[in-house]
Amino acid sequence: MKLIVIGLGQCGSRIADEFARMDKRARSQRNVSICPGVFAVNTDQADLSGLVTIKPDHQHRILIGGRKTGGHGVGKINELGAEIARADADKVIDALRTTKRFYDADGFLVIAGAAGGTGSGSVSIIAQHIKERYMDKPVYALIALPFEHEEKTEERTVYNTAVCLKSISSVADAVILVENQRYVRKDFSLRYNLSKINSLIVEPFWDLLCAGEEKNSKYIGAKTMDAGDIIQTISGWTVIGHGKARVRTLTLPFDKTDHFRMKSVSNYKGIRAMDEAVSELSLKIDPRDAGRALFLISAPAKEINMDIIKEQGDWLREMAPNAIIRNGDYPREKDTMTVTVIFSELSDLERVRYYYNRSTSMMPVIKQRQADLADRRRDIDELSRDIPSLLE
Ligand code: GDP
Where does GTP bind (predicted)? Predict the structure, then answer.
């Protein structure tokens, strides 16, 4: 599958930069292209300069709202992020069109952190503009939910997240949620954590995007997972995960009480990788809420057989009994079995409920505070009424 990727704000741009890196890796290691165009959009010039892989020109690193913000961002005011995106949307759309083989792309992926200003405010506006222009292609959003500590220290965090989620879910074909906190390693520094988190967020897309692009028959599975399968699966609230099992070094525990009856070592490895994928999903969900799901097994060709695909399908069906399940195999990896799992069309998400509930209960306080600020501004204007001004 080929996606045109657009990162908005700092978080979105950095994750988009990871997609650019992944595309580079796909070209060199697998001779396929998965992200024909990768763009970063920000109100902050310094953030754009800090990216590594996205092409360093104005067409790919796009500064918006320069006149309004002086290139220094919008703080945490996502309303301002939205306003700027509305005014500068054409600049972004024009840039996207510079992508070589633009019409080969299967869809768009817009990315942002929900709690900030630029990304949170602009992501739904840009998604809407893309949808209006390119109705025949799906627009997906990848949204990073804030860290725990941000929610405790910054009131705007919860409010921005709720507003961003509501807006993007009403325009994007699917919203893939990733919860930053799930990727935090306590023993790493913040800076290292962020770049590690970004690569962990993007990694599950690796096999998923590459599988359908393979041209070499050696790497084409019995059941290829192509863009059509993905488009038919991804819809509404969505989460993604992947798990790995080493193929060569594994030792088999014979635990008869184990829930699944292992038929062979391969099947066991597959189930283990699938379990890891489900336990490491980008956001904790209840798979029973999924209306659609998919799994993709990538392993050495000799490790993939009908038995393993059936066993994994049965196991996934047990977890997600209400989902239409698609599957695919990708005989590519050398010594690892990787299982990628997506749960989509989720009818309920505890985390989204939490943001909506908390934000709703905060609304009266926020409105009162805004009214107080407006009153104070009026008071001070009133006080200055009899003071002469140097302007006409
Ligand atoms: P913006 O530039 O105004 O859109 O705001 P930021 O993108 O800097 O921050 C928005 C939110 O995204 C923050 O509150 C963090 O939760 C998250 N965030 C910021 N930078 C990163 C990053 O590099 N990776 C990830 N995963 N999350 C980030």
Answer: 10-14, 117-119, 150, 180, 198
- Yes or no: say if 168 and 141 are a contact pair by the CB < 8 Å rule: yes
Would you state the CATH architecture of domain 3-202?
3-Layer(aba) Sandwich (3.40)
The 10 Å Cβ neighbour count of residue 271 is 22
Ligand 1 atom with the shortest distance to the CA of 12: 7
Per CATH, the number for 217-344 is: 3.30.1330.20
Q: How do residues 343-371 score in pLDDT, each as one tens digit?
A: 999 999 999 999 999 999 888 887 887 78
Residue 258 has pLDDT above 70, yes or no: no
Both tokens of 149, joined, read 């500590």
Q: Which residue's alpha carbon is at the smallest distance from atom 19 of ligand 1? A: 11
Q: Known binder of ligand: residue 368?
A: no
Of 113, 25, 126, the closest CA to residue 83 belongs to 126
Quote the strand ranges of the chain, DSSP E: 3-8, 37-42, 61-63, 107-113, 139-145, 174-179, 236-246, 292-298, 324-330, 336-344
Q: What is the DSSP string of 100-162?
A: TTGGG--EEEEEEETTSSHHHHHHHHHHHHHHHH-TTS-EEEEEEEPPHHHHHH-HHHHHHHH
Per-residue pLDDT tens for 50-61?
A: 999 999 999 999
- With a 6 Å cutoff on the Cβ, whether 117 touches ligand 1 is yes
Does ligand 1 have an atom closer than 6 angstroms to the CB of 359? Answer: no
Establish whether residue 194 lines the binding site of ligand 1, counting it when its CB lies within 6 angstroms of any ligand atom.
yes
Nearest residue (CA) to ligand 1, atom 17: 113
Number of Cβ atoms within 10 Å of the Cβ of 34:
24
Q: Ligand 1: does its nearest atom lie under 6 Å from the Cβ of 121?
A: no
115 lines ligand 1 (CB under 6 A): yes
| Phi/psi of residue 248, nearest 5 degrees | -85, -35
Domain ranges of the chain: 3-202, 217-344
Residue 261 pLDDT exceeds 50: no
